[in-house]
Amino acid sequence: MGSLFSSPKPAPNPELEKQKAEQVKINKQESERQAFESSERKRKIAGNLYGAESTQDEDMEGFTGYRRKMMGGNKNA
Q: Looking at residue 59, what is its pLDDT?
């Protein structure tokens, strides 16, 4: 026999359980996507594919590019 002061437990809602499972699945996919994007960003930075000193070809079509270095090696030119 239960306590007189405790409230009765509600019946489990199968629809609520489905929603919780779907949310867990969505959260897992989102965390995997963020981890992939983070690793991809780190790979691109390490490969110097973008950044202030990019090694991209200056002859690329539509390349707005980075400023060329001045004589004397001024990186901020």
A: 52
pLDDT tens track for 33-67: 999 999 998 888 777 665 555 555 555 555 555 55
Q: Provide the whole-model pTM.
A: 0.47
Contacts of 55 (CB under 8 A, 6+ apart): 48, 49
What is the distance between the terminal CA atoms of the chain, rounded to a whole angstrom?
A: 83
Lookup result for tokens 């965390």: 31
CA–CA separation, 77 and 69 (whole Å): 6
CA 49 vs CA 39, 45, 70: distances in Å: 14, 6, 22
